[in-house]
């Protein structure tokens, strides 16, 4: 779906498809803002559907950071992995408690970068698995794609309809309630997508102890 399709839907469902009581240029920023909110929601609740990988990131000798500017439309980190031989292995997250004296290679997020500690162990090749958000608003036009599952596209439409209604002093209650219901439904249907799979009959309890 394109933003132009979303605009057409909002106009049709609010009975403004044949008038000019608001312009497409007025509705588009509203839909873009709601689109960005829904992308952030998806990154939070179903990050697997917004997963991207930036690989072959080289941290040179004397450096210990990875710039977030190299992660397109970055929203949040899922994993940081280091290349050992021909395989990437995840490194731990530094929760801040041992930041001044880390006991193993780990990462933590700063405003513009990922900090690798201890610095002496940082040089190497990494890949970052992250959830990507929406592009910056200035790059989105009526011909841009709304990159959302169908369930969330419908939430976008209802929120757009709410804006159109309130602009003309009409009730937004129906659209607000429907958007809320659709979002609740999406949280259920989108999170459980992998079906049932077998699990090991062994369960680990404590160090070195394996029990059925």
What would you say this structure looks like, in words?
About 35% of the residues lie in helices and about 25% in strands. The chain has helices spanning about 5-15, 25-45, 150-165, 175-190; strands at about 50-60, 65, 75-85, 85-90, 90-95, 105-110, 115, 125-130, 205, 210. The chain has a four-stranded antiparallel sheet. A four-stranded mixed sheet has the order 2-7-6-5, with no helix packed on it. It has a two-stranded antiparallel sheet with strand order 9-10. The longest helix is centred in the N-terminal third of the chain and has 22 residues, at about 25-45.
Distinctive features:
four-stranded mixed beta sheet, alpha+beta, 2 domains, 212 residues, disordered C terminus, four-stranded antiparallel beta sheet, 24% strand
């Amino acid at each position: 779906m394109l933003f132009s399709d979303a605009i057409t839907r909002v106009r049709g469902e609010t009975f403004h498809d044949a008038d000019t009581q608001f312009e497409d240029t007025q509705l588009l920023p509203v839909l873009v803002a709601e689109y960005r909110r829904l992308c952030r929601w998806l990154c939070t609740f179903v990050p697997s559907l917004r997963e991207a990988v930036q690989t072959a990131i080289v941290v040179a000798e004397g450096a210990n950071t990875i710039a977030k500017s190299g992660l397109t439309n970055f929203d949040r980190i899922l994993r940081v992995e280091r290349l050992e031989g021909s395989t990437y292995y995840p490194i731990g997250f530094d929760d801040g408690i041992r930041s001044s004296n880390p006991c193993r290679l780990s990462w933590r997020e700063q405003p513009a970068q990922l900090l690798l500690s201890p610095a002496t162990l940082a040089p190497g090749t990494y890949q970052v698995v992250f959830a990507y958000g929406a592009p910056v608003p200035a790059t989105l036009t009526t011909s841009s794609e709304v990159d959302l599952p169908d369930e969330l596209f419908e939430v976008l439409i209802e929120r757009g309809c709410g804006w159109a209604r309130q602009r003309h002093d009409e009730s937004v209650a129906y659209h607000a309630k429907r958007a809320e219901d659709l979002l609740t439904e999406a949280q259920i249907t989108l999170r459980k997508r992998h079906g049932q799979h077998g699990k090991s009959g062994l369960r680990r309890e404590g160090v070195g102890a394996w029990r059925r």
